[in-house]
Amino acid sequence: MPRLQFQPAAHYAFATEMPIEPGQINEGGHLDNVQLLALVSVARTRFFTWLGYSVLDVAGHAFFVADQAVQYRSEGQPGEVLRIEMTPADLNPKGFDLLFRVSAAQSGREVALGKIGLVCVDMVSRKPSPMPEAFSQRLCAD
Predict the structure, then answer these.
(1) What is the spatial distance between Cα 42 and Cα 55, in angstroms, rounded to a whole number?
(2) What domains sit in the chain, N to C, each tagged with a CATH number?
């Protein structure tokens, strides 16, 4: 099976920074791959907050992760601060992809690239549903 290959987006609408904590380091002495995904998940929540919403309340809808893929590019080192940038892409009526780039904040070294596929879910029926129009417009504004 061929390896995943991502290219950075031309522009990232949102960025946040988080330090690598000692408990996130694995036996190899670098950021654990699962911990990187946890940091990206926190960044996703911050992205929704930045848009003025909660990931679990977008006009009565929530956004669930449908799929996620990551390409690790270098090791996250103990004590580094990571910059996580995100931007929406491939909008469709019931969801979108959230592209991300993780880099070392000080040096700019790329640590990972990836995407999260998000699906809009009506919280009453718990089924996929069209995204609220105001939210779709907000995604397209940046």
Answers:
(1) 11
(2) 14-141 (3.10.129.10)
